[in-house]
Amino acid sequence: MTSSATHPNHDDSIQPINDIEASRLRADFPILERTINGSALIYLDSGATSQKPTCVYEAEQQYYETFNAAVHRGAHSLSVEATDIFEQARSTVARFIGAKDNELVWTSNATEALNLITYSFANASAGLGGEAARQFALGPGDEIVVTELEHHANLIPWQELAFRTGATLKYIPVDEHGVLRMELAGEIITERTRILAFTHVSNVLGTITEVPKLVALAATVGALTVLDGCQSVPHLPVDVKALGIDFMAFSGHKMLGPTGIGGLYGRAELLDAMPPFLTGGSMITSVTMEKAEYLPSPMRFEAGTQRIAQAHGLATAVGYLDEVGMNRIEAWEEHLGQRMISGLQSIDGVTLLGPGTGVTRIGTAPFAVQGVHPHDVGQFLDARGIAVRVGHHCAQPLHRALGVNSSTRASTYLYNTTSDIDALLNAVADVRGYFGVSS
User: Fold this and answer.
1) pLDDT (tens digit, 9 = 90+) per residue, 28-71?
2) Residue extents of the structural domains in the chain
3) Using N-to-C axis directions, what is the helix angle for 308-324 and 54-66, rounded to 10°?
4) How far is the C-alpha of 196 from the C-alpha of 186, rounded, in Å?
5) How far, rounded to the nearest angstrom, does the alpha carbon of residue 47 sit from its chain's CA centroid?
6) Catalytic residue among 132, 278, 394, 429
7) Crossing angle for the helix pair 110-125 and 156-165, nearest 10 degrees?
8) For the domain with range 67-322, which CATH number is right: 2.40.160.60, 2.60.120.200, 3.40.640.10, 3.40.50.2300?
9) Among 1, 99, 333, 399, who pairs with 94 as Cys (CB 3.0-4.6 Å)?
């Protein structure tokens, strides 16, 4: 593990998960009992989607078997019970990230959450939402700043918003190791900057962004901050109030929860002032044939039938994570990540992408094997039962900045063990020999 000097959340009193406990946790995930190509499954693709403990899909099944009804719409018992379950799930997940109940909007995923913000701001720029929404209106001369680390979901929506409004999109670059050029951030973020959108943890590199410094720079010019929390909320203790951000997007399926559910955190006063993104039933106070009035957040952004069973499943996943302890998960993954990084750096012909050991990161390691395409690396590892991610990981600009088109990425979670990492390293060491690539 890294020292406390490089790890702001390091606490010597925290007892991380160990191999014995990780092996016990694995028993809660039936899919991890599978064999793949004759070998026991070693799942190292949690950065793409996590596996689910039994309690999560049992919670969804229980909802459908016992409580299934439309929420917020009926006076009958099933509807009341379903509404209680739905809103209790909101409270549970909001508390997990340090938010108030009315500051958590359910979405299908983080991509939808980020698009919700950009489409709402586009609507405000078109004059919708009245006086309260004018603070979000953009036009020529205004600037939106992102970083070169971003997943496409936190880049393309801002590109589109800039196209629609005439605003200018700028970005903070990375160096050859994928580290943000923070010395340039103060020049790129100017008095014209209205929005600063950036990732908390790089989905490619696993490195942790200096959130306090970026939030402080945005505050000096009055810019709104939008955080991509997809890779941080599942792996680190996250408190949106302590971070001082205005918005944050995250996905349930990366944090042991179901697919089809994600969340948008936003400061209540901002969400209540934003014009809606989707319109229809359940998000209105009154409707005439000429106009409609909208409910406050979060319901003004939750038109139509909601993700009730998925919300219940996500709340169950959050309960599971809380029981294990996010600080302990963070410490264990950092240990696994450093083991991966050290091992990969010692293999001839393998290049670790991003910074090396001693840098704060989650348990994610991207690498390239000299002379072997990442897809071939992935298939070779799969033949040994090891599941990893290959490709550009929805981050083409970052890969270009690193001088590669694609990479192989291994990513851990609380159910991985050191033996998983050692199996990966042993397999990677055999890749070039298998493909007949000489040193």
Assistant:
1) 999 999 999 999 999 999 999 999 999 999 999 999 999 999 99
2) 19-52+325-434, 67-322
3) 150
4) 12
5) 9
6) 394
7) 10
8) 3.40.640.10
9) 99
- For residue 203, the one-letter residue type is N
pTM, rounded to two decimals? 0.95
Which top CATH class is 19-52+325-434?
alpha beta
Show the beta-strand stretches assigned E in 41-140.
42-43, 104-107
Lookup: tokens for 206: 């696993």
Q: Is 394 a catalytic residue?
A: yes
- List CB contacts of 8: < 8 A, sequence separation 6 or more: 360
Q: Please check whether residue 217 is in contact with residue 196, taking contact to mean a CB–CB distance below 8 angstroms.
A: yes
d(CA 335, CA 363): 7
19-52+325-434 and 67-322, same CATH topology: no
**Beta-bridge partners for 70:** none
Find the distance separating the first CA and the last CA of the chain, reported in whole Å. Answer: 31
Cross-strand bridge partners of residue 410: 365
Check residue 174 and report its DSSP letter. B
The letter for the amino acid at 152 is H
Alpha-helical (H) ranges within 304-417 are: 308-324, 326-345, 374-383, 396-402
Write phi, then psi, for 155 (nearest 5 degrees). -125, -55
Regions of the chain where pLDDT drops below 70: 1-13, 439
Q: Please report, to the nearest 10 degrees, the dihedral formed by the alpha carbons of residues 324, 325, 328, 330 taken in order.
A: 110
Can you name the residues that pair with 271 across neighbouring β-strands? none
